[in-house]
Design brief:
Keywords: Cell membrane, Membrane, Transmembrane, Transmembrane helix, Transport. The structure is a single chain. By secondary structure, the protein is mainly alpha-helical. It has a single domain, classed as Orthogonal Bundle (MetI-like fold). 72% of the residues lie in helices and 0% in strands. The chain has 13 helices and no strands. α4 packs across α7. 28% of the residues are buried.
């Protein structure tokens, strides 16, 4: 009963959005009680085709870079022995308590110095590495028995082969978890495109949604249709990877 109540509280706003997006507007009133025309109108007027392409490109690029940097740095912090490792780990953890908005001015100056403002680089590079991803991968690598690495090295594998052929395949739940967190975060990000870009051709889904809401403040049905359009890819992605996501979160930090 408590779960049902909690689910109802969470799903009620989403249900209102969906129902409102199907309501007829303007000359559609009286023709049908439910219509999908709002989605076609919202898609065309909001310019979501270009926005979807830009958001997909940026989200996939950032996700790929974060997976690469997090996997390598996480493995180094979990397995390699070097001076200052604990201090480096504390430094990585310290980045988690610093909001991105506080760093926006120095990041903007660096991007301006590198002539990256109003480019895809301005949307990708500032979040190419992430302390959360590094810590997540480090914790998951510690759950993998070190004997597997030792056996591989006895068979002649070097450190790179151990990472790419043994550790990363075994860390698939953590990688999928990091992929989902990063992709969804980048897909929903409004701050970076708003600050670092002004060119219409670089507009992302969240910018398109914000501008759409400014233009159609009197048409709730169209606005809700635009919200559903922007949300569908995230929902589909989560449904595909939910098992690996739950497994990755549940097993991270458990040592053998």
């Amino acid at each position: 009963m408590l779960l049902a109540i909690g689910a109802g509280v969470v799903l009620l706003p989403l249900g209102v959005v969906l129902i409102t997006s199907l309501m007829p507007t303007g000359d559609q009133v009286g023709a049908a009680s439910i219509t999908l025309e709002n989605y076609r109108v919202a898609w065309d007027r909001g310019g979501f085709l270009l926005a979807f392409a830009n958001s997909t490109l940026v989200a996939l690029a950032v996700t790929a870079l974060q997976i690469l940097t997090s996997a390598l740095a996480g493995y180094a912090l979990a397995r390699l022995k070097f001076r200052g490792k604990q201090a480096l780990l504390l430094l990585v953890l310290a980045t988690l308590v610093i909001p991105f908005q506080i760093l926006v001015i120095p990041i903007f100056l660096v991007l301006k110095w590198g002539h990256l403002i109003n480019t895809y680089g301005a949307l990708i590079l500032p979040t190419a590495a992430n302390g959360f991803g590094i810590f997540l991968m480090r914790q998951y690598f510690q759950t993998i028995p070190v004997e597997l690495e030792e056996a591989a090295m006895l068979d002649g594998a070097n450190r790179w082969q151990v990472v790419w052929r043994i550790m990363l395949p075994l860390a698939r739940p953590a990688l999928v978890t990091l992929f989902l967190f990063t992709f969804i975060g980048e897909w929903n990000d409004l701050f970076k495109p708003l600050v670092f870009t002004t060119r219409p051709e670089l507009r992302t889904v969240q910018l398109a949604l914000a501008s759409f809401q400014e233009q159609f403040t009197n048409s709730w049905a169209l606005m809700m249709a635009a919200v559903v359009i922007a949300t569908i890819p995230v929902i589909v992605l989560f449904l595909i990877g939910q098992r690996q996501l739950i497994r990755g979160i549940a097993t991270t930090g458990i040592k053998n």
